[in-house]
Amino acid sequence: MPARWTGGGAVERAGLENRYSLRAIVGSNPTLSVGWPDGQSTRESREQKHVDVGRLAERMATATADDARMARAFADRLPDSHTARHLIERLRGILFPGLHGQRDFDADSLARQLEREIADFYEDLRHQVEGAFVHWGDGNAKPHAEEATVVVMETLPAIRDLLSLDVQAAYDGDPAARHLDEVMLCYPGIRALTTHRFAHVMVQHGIPLLPRIMQEHAHSDTGIDIHPAAEIGQSFFIDHGTGVVIGETAQVGDHGKLYQGVTLGARSFELDESGVLKRGMKRHPTLGDHVTVYAGATILGGDTVIGDHCVIAGGVFLSRSVPAGHIVAGPRPEIRLIANPV
Known about the structure:
Layout: H1 10-14, H2 22-28, H3 42-48, H4 53-66, H5 81-95, H6 110-135, H7 141-154, H8 156-173, H9 180-186, H10 188-204, H11 210-222, E1 225-226, E2 231-232, E3 237-238, E4 245-246, E5 251-252, E6 257-258, E7 263-265, E8 286-287, E9 292-293, E10 298-300, E11 305-306, E12 311-312, E13 317-318, E14 327-328
């Protein structure tokens, strides 16, 4: 039985160290009641309610086993979401040593430190990649995982070069940035792009599932939703970032700049003769080089192309192409000033 909350100061009287203890709160306030007598355990309370835990577990297990949508959940090597998150954190330490990850090294020992970290990272990544191939039904998962992981690891220097340009673009584009280190340590756009640059390479080399798991961790951490298959050019800057959405088939050229709340999305979903969604179609817009999209703008459609050196004003809803060198703005809103009686 839930407690009857009738005393506003109960938490304070119970003490901050006990603020999560229902017994401590109840004991400090006689106006509160809880559904088990003093001294009775929560296990005894469950038994009093006659919840047949074993029967409930059997019903849940049967429902799961009978659900065709869960068929691949029993794969022996299903990629692990927690390990995927940990891999991304370790990747940041490899790409930005000294700013992320281990710091007990100097310039002379950096190569040795990175050698150890990269070797451990490679083994754990290969294991997760193999699990992704197994989960996807690949009968040759182990050799495919080995080959794909080696190729992905070989791109780390190129990924680092791209991220360095992204960091510079963020610093050059934001007067609030006081130092490049601040950008690398603090900016959510760089965190999201670190994951994306790596996940995108995995997608390019046919690694299933794992890139999406990694990218969704970045989405959760930053509020920036970039599909790992989206193509993003160099020197890209996402300012603030919250609410940015970049869809699977979106393409963004070099020196792009997006502000918070921008959506590069799909206008509609084409269906086949059976009424099933067609997959693999170009659904999201293409942005050329040096395109800036301000806060809250929405650009939709796979056939929508924004030319080079365009500026899309905040709040614009756009579903058609724009030639190069244009500014797109919506109608100027009417501003009303109303006296505020104080």
